[in-house]
Amino acid sequence: MMSVLASTEPVRIVRHPDGVVELRLDDPGRGNALDLRTAEALRDTAVEVAADPGGAVLLRSTGGSFCVGGDLRAFAGLGAGTGAYVHAVASAAHAAIQALYELPVPLVTAVRGAAAGGGIGLAVVGDIVLAGRSARFRLAYTAIGLTPDCGASWFLPRLLGPRRAADLILTNRVLTGDDAERWSLVSRSVDDGELDGAARRIAADLAAGAGDALRASKGLLRVGAGEELRRHLAEEARLIAALADGRQAQDRMASFLASGSRPKADDGRAGARKAESVS
After folding, report:
1. pTM recorded for the entire structure
2. What is the pLDDT of residues 3-14, one digit of tens each?
């Protein structure tokens, strides 16, 4: 039997008897969008998982989207308080990213549907990242006058190289799951119906593997990078908050909301009507 050791909505921890610890984004009606409540729940559950990570960690979502990014409806109408709110959201999400990056055990991520804005940083923090073929990756911060957060501007140049990272960040192009595999943004793409099963099997195999060797190998891959990521996340939070207080970003966010442009959360159903993303 699996046991739910933390039921904090909209993020949950599920511990499986085979040693896999699952961190589940569980607010499908909003496309798992990041407002302050969700970001703080993500931070708290990530820290809890880091304290007792089992043999492997699986990060996945319920619903049709992985994470549509920041909830612009939560940002709207705050006026001079926008920057402070955005900084609080980013800081909480960044604490989660840091905790997940520094996990001593392998982290497997399963991405379905929309991974937008901060959802991209959350997706690619994994050691092994699987994406459904229908997944859609899009940064789109600059479209609303903001800069990347959740480590996107740190991870992408390292994963893709500087040219492709600049292309994604500056032009806001969309990558499918197959595109993301070709670009090395994810480890592999799989048929949508196989995503959860494939990710679960990989995590279980890792949890059953040579734990000491896996931990030591992951340590070699991460050596010296954790503090660099920490400093970069702080700068991302500072910049996005400063821009969020500016007239250009506030006008662009208001225009985005008024236009009805939305990420296709949950395949265009209820989540797309309720959640507005920074992407």
Report:
1. 0.89
2. 544 455 899 999
Kindly report, residue by residue over 20-61, the tens digit of the pLDDT.
999 999 999 999 999 999 999 999 999 999 999 999 999 999
Residue with tokens 């909003």: 30
Q: What is the DSSP string of 86-102?
A: HHHHHHHHHHHHHHHHT
- Under CATH, what is the fold of the domain 3-274? 2-enoyl-CoA Hydratase; Chain A, domain 1 (3.90.226)
DSSP label at 70?
B
The Cα–Cα gap between 168 and 160 comes to: 10
- Compute the residue count for the chain: 279
At 150, phi and psi to the nearest 5?
Answer: 55, 25
Kindly state the tokens that stand for 26: 């569980």
Q: How far apart are CA 32 and CA 261, in angstroms?
A: 17
Phi then psi for 165, rounded to 5 degrees?
A: -60, -45
